Each structure stands twice: as structure tokens, then as C-alpha cells.
Amino acid sequence: MVFSQGGFPHLEFLTLDYVVMLKEWRVEKEAMPRLQRLRISGCRGLRAVPDGLQEITTLKELTINGMPSRFCSRVGEGGEDFYKIKHVPSLIITNILPLDEEPEMEEAAGASQVVAVPAGDFHQESTVEGM
Q1: What is the pLDDT of residues 4-63, one digit of tens each?
Q2: Contact 55, 79 (CB under 8 A)
Q3: Which of 95, 108, 39 is nearest to 68 (CA)?
């Protein structure tokens, strides 16, 4: 999934809720410049938070819920992705999945890419639900 440069200029709140087929998410520079709160919940295939989050200085709260322990340890303090979100004042991680409930982290053959395109400047909140 790709959030393109200049996309979602007025988006303030985003929830990714049980997008189970999502493995990779890319946020380009200047995408979501007003994002304040981000919630990632139940996206068990997602491997990491996108690099572009470090550019979103307006982000005040990141909530991670029901995600695999590998993902959670990457974003926690000292994790390899912590630098991407260290500027966020509030990091909430809840309901971490034990190792035996984590999905296989192998690349699926023929996986397709989802590109998110803004629907219009009037949207202030968006939720992406399971695919």
C-alpha cells in the first residue's frame, strides 16, 4: 500500500483495522501532513511501520493493537524501527500477539500492491478495513 506525496492533505485521524493482506505500507514525503492520530490494529501481515512516519511531525498518538510481537518489538524503544516514531509523544501498544499466533512472514507469490488515492480534501478521518 502506498500513500503518495501530496495525498490526504487534510487527514487527521487514520485507522488501519484488520487489513490482513497488508504486508508493506509506504508513506511518501508530504503525504498526510496533518495526521495527528494513527491506529494500527489486527494487521497481522504488516512487517514494519513505514519510513515516512518519521516525516510526519504532527503525529501525536500512535496506537498499535493486536499486532504480532515481532512487529511490536520493532517499534518499541530500542527496536529497529523506533527511529521512525520516536518523535511521537504517545505510543500505545496493547494486546500483543504471542509468537504462536503470528502469521508466516514469507513473501506471497504474486502479491499485488494497493495504492491509496485521496478521495477529496474534505475527509478528516479515514478507516481502512480488512481486505
Answers
A1: 999 999 999 999 999 989 999 999 999 999 999 999 999 999 999 999 999 999 999 999
A2: no
A3: 95
The radius of gyration of the chain from alpha carbons, rounded to an integer in Å, stands at: 14
Q: Mind spelling out the 3-state secondary structure of 27-83? A: ECCCCCCCCCEEEEECCCCCCCCCHHHHHCCCCCEEEEECCEHHHHHHHCCCCCCHH
- Give the whole-angstrom CA distance, residue 5 versus residue 122: 18
> pTM for the full model?
0.77
SS3 of 116, please?
strand
Residue with cell 493482506: 21
Rounded to an integer, what distance in angstroms lies between the CA atom of residue 9 and that of residue 96?
Answer: 32
